[in-house]
TrEMBL record:
GO molecular function: electron transfer activity; heme binding; metal ion binding
UniProt domain Cytochrome c: residue ranges: 27-124
Pfam hit, one: Cytochrom_C
Entry protein name: Cytochrome c family protein
PANTHER family reported for this sequence: CYTOCHROME C (PTHR11961)
Signal peptide boundaries: 1-29
Domain of life: Bacteria
Amino acid sequence: MPASKSLPALVLSASLLAAGVMSATAAAAADGAKVFNLQCRTCHAAKSSVAGPSLNGVAGRRIAGLSDFAYSSALKSKGGSWTDAALDAYLAAPAKFAPGGRMFNAVAAPGDRAAVIAYLKTLK
């Protein structure tokens, strides 16, 4: 097939692939919202603080980075940012990630953690 005829097919394929990835991401975020509402909402609100800090904009934010929340010294001493890996480690075992921290509720299932992280990334 001449290059001029294969370019539209390539563009169409790339568009369909991107749409599938976006659909999968949206589905994961929707699943994450459900897990969040079951396991996290008691202490955390998406946009305002309840007992834990606001999670609005948490993905990529500096760990213990909100000036208007009194973080534990354990979390303050962590350094770094809330990357996917850091969020996953914290959600999997908060006491192991930041010994002496106040968060106690873990998200045990890896798929649930991935979904919660996808949801957290939607909170701007």
